[in-house]
Design a protein that fits this description.
Layout: H1 3-7, H2 10-24, E1 28-34, H3 37-52, E2 56-62, H4 67-74, E3 81-85, E4 101-105, E5 117-120, H5 134-145, H6 153-162, H7 172-180, E6 185-191, H8 198-203, H9 217-226, H10 240-256, H11 261-265, E7 268-274, H12 281-293, H13 297-304, H14 311-332, E8 337-338, E9 343-346, H15 350-364, E10 371-376, E11 380-386, H16 389-393, H17 398-408, E12 412-415, E13 419-425, H18 429-443
Parallel strand pairs: 1-2, 1-3, 3-4, 4-5, 9-10
Antiparallel strand pairs: 6-7, 8-9, 10-11, 11-13, 12-13
Length: 451
């Protein structure tokens, strides 16, 4: 029995084996990946896997998951093998006739009579919100192809972190994979900072987001002075006493922001180091996700496929993303609207709306109400919704909320219980937030469990 067979059940493995057989029988494969950090990390896993099988490969990123948009992308190569990752289960209904399609997904979906080989973590009792992401699904497919692909574990971890599935501790299939492949990395539970110097680590820190320190060099210098730490000192150089002092100061800052325990726990994380990868797990995920958010997905992908000449371009794009995101968060937090059960804002960029929602919800706005970010286009408005683990425990399920509300105003939506997205017609925003607010009121229940 292979290691991957130890962590998934036989039905799951059989489906993966069918997908592997289909893939190996085709000379060409087209990968369609969601454009974000999880999707792009998944694409790296799949590209490396297929190239090792000596397949010709074409990669496409997809942003819109609307039926007509999804169908248009798929039908560009209707007769070729298509592998959809980090999406596809709910969209397969729009291409019911396509047989040579493998879907590797983890989102909620409505079953359809589509002919695609749909492999979704949720169909095997796995929590697709916390226990398996798109990169998890790409990784188990890769391992089913060959155990030598275990060296791709760093990119699975990158996707998992980008999808925030490490928040509160790694669990589910994610944890089982890491337990089975411990030889591929070393791990240290430590303060959650990324960067070459302490000053950069604090100024560019977004997870966690420290109000008055993130994006504020003077604020970052002040807290380092209080801790008697050097601006150019490396985070790796901190001894245990220095880590404890700095972490305590940063925890006090998060508490002053009225963050919940969920956010404060993110002050520490499992920082993994991998053989032959120069970045820690947190840095790797941040770089891949950052490049994705500014439309530089292919730069990061090509770099991690081996084109080392792109290193400076990739890191420049990452810093551009961080700077832009921090500026947007500070501007947006002053303009958040509020209803009885919902908060909302307008995002300047559709690719940033989800990340802004994440950071506002975890670190900067009222923790008792979920938030939705809108990006208004010429004809349609894209939206990203975020909650917290505590709100999910109280009954929040954004997947069903957005699916219902979007459809009622002529759009579509879905995703996870804690995070989801959608598209609605332009001009329907006010009607939409009032509708969501009513649904949330009906869905919520009194506190029953501590966070």
């Amino acid at each position: 029995m292979s290691p991957v067979q130890k962590v998934i059940n036989q039905d799951f493995y059989n489906k993966l084996a069918d997908a592997v057989a289909l893939t190996k029988g085709e000379p060409f494969a087209r990968i369609i990946a969601h454009y974000d950090g999880d999707g792009t990390s998944s694409a790296i896993v799949l590209l490396k896997t297929l190239l090792r099988l000596k397949k010709r490969v074409h990669l496409t990123y997809i942003k819109s998951l609307l039926g007509e948009d999804f169908r248009k992308v798929v039908m560009e190569y209707p007769d070729s093998l298509t592998i959809v990752v980090d999406a596809g289960s709910d969209q397969a209904q729009y291409v019911p006739e396509v047989e040579k399609m493998i879907i590797l997904d983890h989102h909620f979906y409505r079953p359809s009579p589509a002919k695609a080989l749909n492999i979704n973590a949720r169909d095997f009792g796995i929590d697709g919100t916390h226990g398996a992401c798109g990169a998890t699904m790409a990784m188990v497919f890769s391992l089913a192809c060959s155990e030598r692909n275990s060296d791709l574990i760093p990119y699975f971890v990158s996707g998992m972190i980008a999808d925030k599935q490490d928040l509160g501790g790694i669990s589910g299939l994610n944890r089982m994979l890491l337990n089975e492949y411990t030889s591929t990395f070393s791990n240290e539970r430590t303060i959650s900072l990324e960067g070459e110097t302490l000053l950069d680590s604090l100024v560019y820190s977004t997870d966690p987001f420290f109000n008055g320190i993130t994006g504020k060099p003077d604020g970052a210098k002040a807290i380092l002075d209080e801790c008697h730490l050097g601006y150019e000192q490396s985070p790796d150089s901190l001894n245990e006493d220095q880590k404890r002092i700095l972490e305590k100061k940063l925890a006090v800052r998060l508490i002053s922001q009225k963050c919940g325990l969920e956010a404060i726990k993110y002050l520490e994380s499992d920082m993994m180091k991998f053989k032959d990868v120069e970045f820690t797990s947190k840095e790797l995920s941040s770089i891949i996700d950052g490049n994705s958010r500014v439309g530089k997905n292919s730069v990061a992908v090509q770099y991690f496929l081996g084109d080392k000449k792109l290193r400076n371009e990739m890191l420049t794009a990452w810093r551009t993303y961080k700077t832009r995101l921090i500026d947007y968060v500070y501007r947006t937090m002053k303009e958040v609207g509020s209803l009885s059960h919902l908060q909302f804002f307008y995002s300047p960029e559709s690719e940033m709306a989800g990340k802004i929602s994440d950071l506002l919800m975890l670190y900067l706005v009222d923790q008792s109400k979920p938030i939705i970010g809108f990006n208004v286009g010429d004809k349609e408005t894209k939206l990203s919704a975020r909650g917290t683990i505590k709100l999910v425990q109280k009954g929040l399920n954004f997947s069903t909320v957005l699916r219902s509300a979007c459809e009622q105003v002529g759009g579509s939506g879905g995703g996870h219980d804690i995070a989801a997205g959608g598209v609605i017609p332009k001009g329907k925003e006010k009607e939409f937030v009032e509708l969501v607010n009513r649904i949330l009121k009906e869905q919520s229940k009194p506190d029953s469990e501590p966070e």
